[in-house]
Write a structure and sequence with these properties.
heterodimer, A: 166 residues, four-stranded antiparallel sheet, 8 strands, B: 772 residues, alpha+beta, five-stranded antiparallel sheet, globular, binds zinc ion
Chain lengths: 166, 772
């Protein structure tokens, strides 16, 4: 079943009532959700580019006027081309000693840095923490998500990918 | 001569003899491969012709399977089965593919199916023969079983003289006679210490267990009473389901039943494809998880070649195709090792459905159709597909639950992008600690314990709310911590506390669920040992979209305490939680000859005497989103409920906190906002461009600067994952000459070069159900 715009706004804001949330979890999905969701997000951001796909809590793949696709933070910061890995253009802070890890957890409850480190990725403009990785030293930076936007819009949603705005 | 196949051939029972069963399965597999539809079913005949009957059959059989589980459960005495519900019953078609399953540890949909398929492929039909009333028992890990303590009872179903299916029942038994007591012991490094294993053995005829089996099996394990009652539970359940199937056949006719038995699998296959299209986004998803194996420690008593610190590595790449099928590739995973955390491909592929029923396919019809809609690649030689028949598996879950936690993150990125925020889950907790041990209990009987308090860990945070506190475990979605009173009856261990574990959850805009901790006092035990099992040096889950991973584990144990004297004198003793391990308090209320407080969360048997202490800490779940976005009200609630230590409210959440007149914690929203701006400025100052940081990290790699366990993980992954090796080198821009091998690490070479798989045994035809 479909939900009204207000319910989806509440879902985004985390203020939705349990009854509706439970219904969302237990009943078949509402296929119109994506459009409504993207419309709400588009209205909330302050940049002019068209959101094609939300990538994360503050990240979007957007389409610019010239048709190019980039990853943007909702503060307006542009990371890179949509094909690239945004993390490579973020600021990184690595917690790799007991002291910096103890700022997060009691000592016995923190990873041992000779086994595992914490990598925090920040937006270089607004300082939001966009991702945290807990990996061994030397670990390559993974590209988490490579969506097939064409197949998603055309084959799954049955709608064309939005045209670049003139 | 070319054989012609008809689909209809698949819908008949099998009259055994002349390898009829093997030919039948070959036929089903050939048609599946040729058409892309299970058993060649391109068009449903029963489902289309009589959808009401089809759905009625689903409801009736499913209800019957669930009912059998609920009824049979009452026979068991083991709290693992009776309290925690660690049992499952599944109905199979003649080819060994699952139609329907009960609730419970549904990883066994596939493992029992693999046992049936093994019997089919290896000619059980001729020897030992398959007859009405036969009972087969299996718990062999080399056939795909998760670990030896999951014991399967499998019976064939005959209609007149045709085999029309199978029923399997599994319980998690409390002990299987491994080198150490408990169902998932630490210590076995080879199969030969992993516990008593039987390979699809005929253990009963005419519905009655055979005497040689009963006598032999009781001598091979520690907890005989639980063992026998567990077996009765399984037999009662499978017979109830067999009777139900025969009743249904009487009503609808054998042809209709068999049509159903294949169509429902194809239906399950299409169902998964539909669901993937309805909920995700096509594309590629990547994530990785790790977990520690800290065996180079005096408290881990294993052979010298196993005394090694190493790390489980499980990277995945999920490809969701435009047609709604998907491929899960685990290239780069580390090699199997000399510990009991290895897994077989079937336990890996089947176990994933336990997780998926909690997210992607929360449906009653979970069957082998999902398997046929999925392509798995588990490279040969990795910990999830060992190429050696000596591997131990008694706690496979240690690696499995850790590896799967990353899959939550990948799926959650899809749900998030699609707007189905209600489905987002940052991951599952490491489902430990496992309090295990044995000896003579408070009733003067030989006994073993495995506390399933681990069935109630914190769950991962979502995109709209916190994770659940001390609530569930990935392997059994019905998880329950069990009543203290029941555990005290089952274990010579008195509760001195059961509390929320503060700071165990990953922080975030929405935090993970917290775990809990129980302090146990040994009482009434004789010749008693216990040990610890869980993650300690590493955390196996991961935060999502700015959230942090959960805390790691640690251990606390105290020996030769003065608690008995203190109780007699009426003096205070340690009670409640180990609330702030940076400022421990238990030690203020006792004297002990030895206290162990460290990150060594894997140990082998340690002697415990009455009035010794053991802390059982059950882990929390990972967080979602930047913690600076958590509301002041939520932080107040965390502080009030004991979920968060005050200093971390300040450091992690940037909260400005104080206590009001009544002593209640409050957060000042105005000052908090200012603190958070300051923290963001600090981030911008301390954060460095990734490409600058990479140069430094690269220099460390060139110099091979890392701990031995980290290097061992990479070396073993490079050996069995050549593509991972190439990608690693390309990412860091390493010279062609750079390599890292196990040989150069100066550690024991056991397993590096010489290996021998089970398929090299005479007359063994292994099942290969994944891409290798
Ligand atoms: Zn930003």
């Amino acid at each position: 079943m479909a939900y009204d715009r207000k319910k989806i706004e509440e879902l985004i804001d985390g203020t939705i009532d349990w009854e509706t949330l439970h219904r969302m979890l237990s009943q078949p999905k509402d296929p119109e959700r994506f459009q409504l969701y993207v419309d709400i997000l588009q209205e909330r951001v302050h940049f002019p580019e068209t959101i094609l796909l939300p990538m994360g809590l503050h990240l979007y793949i957007v389409q610019k006027k010239d048709g190019s696709r980039v990853v943007k933070c909702d503060c307006g910061h542009e990371f890179c081309s949509a094909d690239d890995n945004w993390k490579m253009y973020a600021l990184i802070y690595v917690r790799e000693d007991e002291e910096s890890l103890n700022e997060l957890y009691p000592k016995l409850m923190a990873p041992d840095p000779s086994w595992q480190v914490l990598r925090e990725y920040y937006c270089p403009n607004c300082g939001t923490q966009l991702e945290v990785e807990n990996v061994t030293p030397w670990y390559p930076i993974l590209k988490d998500f490579e969506p097939d936007i064409e197949a998603f819009y055309q084959e799954w949603l049955g709608i064309p990918v939005p045209e670049p705005k003139k | 001569m070319t054989q012609t196949f008809s689909i209809e051939q698949n819908f008949q029972g099998v009259k055994l003899g002349d390898q009829a069963l093997k030919k039948h399965r070959d036929h089903v597999m050939t048609q599946t491969k040729a058409t892309g539809h299970y058993a060649g079913i391109e068009h449903f005949s029963l489902k289309t012709k009589d959808p009401i009957l089809y759905n009625k059959m689903i409801s009736r059989l499913r209800a019957g399977v669930v009912h059998a589980r609920e009824t049979a459960k009452r026979i068991a005495a083991s709290p693992i089965v009776e309290q925690e519900g660690e049992l499952t019953f599944t109905l199979y078609n003649p080819a060994g593919d699952a139609l329907l399953t009960s609730t419970g540890i549904i990883i066994h949909v596939g493992t029992m199916g693999a046992a049936i398929k093994y019997m089919i492929e290896n000619g059980w039909e001729e020897n030992p023969g398959i007859k009405p009333g036969d009972i087969f028992t299996n718990n062999d890990c080399s056939l795909g079983n998760v670990h030896p303590c999951d014991v399967h009872t499998i019976v064939p179903i005959f209609w007149e003289d045709h085999l029309i299916g199978w029923v399997g029942g599994v319980t998690h038994v409390i002990d299987t006679g491994a080198v150490g007591p408990g169902s998932m012991t630490v210590g076995p490094v080879q199969r030969f210490g992993d516990g008593y294993q039987v390979t699809c053995r005929k253990t009963g005829e005419n519905d009655v267990p055979l005497k040689d089996w009963l006598h032999e099996s009781q001598r091979s394990i520690r907890t005989t009473r639980y063992w026998l009652l567990d077996e009765r539970t399984r037999i009662a359940g499978v017979h109830m389901i067999r009777d139900l199937v025969l009743d249904v056949v009487k009503e609808v006719g054998v042809e209709t039943y068999l049509k159903f038995a294949y169509e429902v699998v194809e239906d399950g296959r299409r169902g998964l494809q539909r669901r993937i299209k309805a909920m995700t986004i096509p594309g590629k998803y990547r994530a990785v998880s790790f977990v520690d194996v800290g065996y180079n420690h005096p408290d881990v008593n294993v052979p010298p070649y196993a005394k090694l610190n190493t790390i489980m590595h499980a990277p995945h790449e999920i490809t969701i195709r435009a047609d709604g099928t998907w491929r899960l590739d685990f290239e780069g995973s580390s090699r199997w090792g000399w510990h009991s955390y290895n897994a077989q491909p079937v336990s890996f592929t089947s176990g994933i459905w336990v997780m998926m029923t909690q997210t992607l396919i929360p449906t009653e019809i979970i069957n082998d159709g999902a398997y046929y809609a999925t392509q798995f690649r588990l490279p040969k030689g990795t910990w999830m597909n060992p190429d050696d028949r000596r591997t131990a598996h008694s706690y496979s879950w240690h690696f499995l639950v850790s590896a799967w936690s990353a899959i939550w993150r990948s799926l959650s990125r899809a749900y998030f992008a699609r707007g189905y925020l209600e489905e987002v889950n940052a991951g599952n907790a490491n489902t430990s600690n496992w309090l295990q041990g044995g000896g003579f209990n408070q009733y003067d009987e030989i006994h073993a314990v495995n506390s399933f308090e681990a069935a109630a860990e914190g769950t991962g945070a979502g995109a709209v709310k916190d994770g659940l506190d001390h609530a569930a475990a990935i392997w059994n979605p019905e998880g329950d911590m069990g009543d203290m009173e029941i555990w005290e009856l089952a274990e010579p261990l008195i509760y001195l506390g059961r509390n929320v574990k503060a700071n165990s959850a990953g922080y975030g805009k929405y935090r993970g669920g917290c775990g809990f901790e129980t302090l146990r006092l040994v009482h009434g035990a004789k010749d008693w040992t216990m040990f610890f099992m869980g993650n300690g040096y590493m955390v196996s889950d991961g935060g999502l979209m700015g959230g942090y991973p959960a805390a790691t584990g640690y251990r606390f144990e105290a020996h030769k305490t003065d608690i008995k004297d203190r109780i007699e004198k009426g003096e205070p003793i340690p009670l409640g939680g180990d609330t702030d391990p940076d400022h421990p308090e238990y030690e203020h209320f006792m004297q002990a000859l030895e206290v162990k407080r460290d990150k060594q969360t894997m140990t082998t048997e340690t002697i415990f005497e009455d009035y010794d202490l053991y802390l059982n800490y059950l882990r929390g779940g990972p967080g979602f989103g930047d913690p600076l976005e958590r509301t002041p009200q939520q932080i107040e609630a965390d502080l009030q409920g004991g979920y968060l230590l005050p200093r971390y409210a300040e450091k992690v959440y940037g909260a400005s906190i104080y206590q009001d007149d009544q002593g209640a914690w409050r957060v000042d929203p105005v000052q908090t906002k200012k603190n958070r701006e300051k923290i963001k400025q600090e981030r911008l100052k301390r954060g460095r461009p990734v490409k600058v940081w990479m140069e430094e990290e690269r220099a460390k790699i060139l110099k091979k600067e890392a701990s031995l366990q980290v290097k061992h993980m990479y070396a073993s992954s490079f050996q069995v994952g050549p593509r991972f090796y190439e990608e690693f080198k390309a990412f860091w821009g390493l010279p062609e000459s750079w390599s890292l091998t196990e040989e150069e690490l100066g550690i024991s070479s056991f397993g590096q070069k010489y290996r021998m798989g089970v398929e090299q045994l005479p007359d063994v035809k292994p099942l290969v159900l994944v891409e290798e």
